[in-house]
Automatic annotation (TrEMBL):
Residues 50-126 form the Rhodanese domain. SMART domains: RHOD. This is Rhodanese-like protein. Transmembrane segments: none annotated. Residues 1-21 form the signal peptide. InterPro entries: GlpE_sulfurtransferase (IPR050229), Rhodanese-like_dom (IPR001763), Rhodanese-like_dom_sf (IPR036873). Keywords: Signal. Pfam families: Rhodanese (PF00581). It comes from the Bacteria.
Length: 129
């Protein structure tokens, strides 16, 4: 009986800690969109397109009209605050989706409305965009 009690306490504690420290792919105030959804979203001229890859990656090809701010640079927050308007939705992408999720979390914490392209520029070009 004591063994079941300890097991129950351990499971309860594990669930509690998971809820506190659990990881979610897109928690925060941003959404991850498929290529088709992203294409519809960026058709709105009121959104700001943001490429968070390196300048070299951006120069090799990017979505038309996208501003480039490298999320891996230490001044990403400062540049974003200086360039991105608070009142507009920021639609962003990277190469594969990993850096864009990082950027989306950062920008969400800065109270921007953010949408990111799941799968990144690779999925965008693979879909023929």
């Amino acid at each position: 009986m004591k063994r079941f009690y300890i097991l129950g306490v351990a499971m309860g504690m594990s669930a509690f800690l998971s809820s506190l420290f659990g990881c979610h792919v897109s928690d925060g105030d941003f959404r991850s969109l498929s290529v088709a959804e992203f294409k519809e979203y960026i058709a709105d001229t009121a959104v700001v397109r943001l490429d968070v890859r390196t300048a070299e990656e951006y120069a090799e090809g990017h979505i038309a009209g996208a501003v480039n701010i490298d999320v891996l640079q230490p001044d990403f927050k400062q540049k974003s605050k200086a360039v991105l308007p608070k009142g507009k939705t920021i639609v962003l992408y990277c190469r594969s989706g990993k850096r864009s999720k990082k950027a989306a979390r950062i920008l969400s914490e800065l109270h921007y409305k953010v949408v990111e392209l799941d799968g990144g520029y690779m999925e965008w070009t693979k879909a023929g965009q």
